[in-house]
Design goal:
Helix content is 39%, strand content 20%. It has 294 residues and is of the alpha/beta class. It has a 10-stranded mixed β-sheet, sandwiched between helices.
Amino acid sequence: MSTMDETWTRGIVVGVDGSPESYHAFDWARAAAARHHVPLTVSHAEAVPIGPITPVPAYEIESLQSATQRILSRVNDRIEPADRGAVHVDAVPSVGAPAPALVHASRDVDLVVVGRRGADVTRHLLGSVSSTVVAHAHGPAAVVPIKARPGDPERVVVGIGFDDDPTAPLELAFAEAHAAGCPVVLLHAVQRSTRVACEAGAGRVAGVEAALKGLAYRWKELAPDVECREEVRTGDPVDILLEHVTPSDLLVLGGHRHPRFVGRLLGSVPDVLLGDAPCVVAVAHTARPHAATD
């Protein structure tokens, strides 16, 4: 990305299943589509029942289309009359589990959005739609909790780690901040054991602060209209980020995409924050140069 004058062009897809959480995710996704001037696609997947004798899908295409039209009608009803027409909203029906449908759709959009069902779901329920979509999406994915404010974010907070290339989450963070006209906060948490070692002469905290300032300087050049500040705090990364964000923020994290639908170990920083954060959490995967594609 050379400048922030470039904008998203492929659109946003949001999963809607008729639940209050999914309609709330739609509200946030529509606001995101409006600020980026891109279309919004509503993905509605219907599970296919299997016949008791022969393995033939027991569904009718007319029924699927009717259910999708009901979903689209309800999401349109959520749009204020004055705002209708600002974003092109379409619906795409699919047959099967919702997570694979959203992962497939993520190949062709700028962002895939899904709601979150209650606290601690993502952390404790292996295979939930939100955790599966985030783990396997081909691009950035956002999880919207019911407590999150659905409008433009007041801040974009980026959890910065230095074990991986932070380019992908920073691209997402600055694109969102540029579109929303809000500041970016680069936040790094130094473990207490590391702080003790640094005070004994290791000097890592000063290096972290310098690295954050270097990132901020580089991205300010790319997005001179975006206010950016850096913060280094001591403590557990999850605790620090949870203390820092509010329902009006957007929290952006890095991560690694899992190329196949297999089990994964839960408990990483992104996993816990996806389940506990009061704000929208977006994960932008760091590319693995030698990873096989699915």
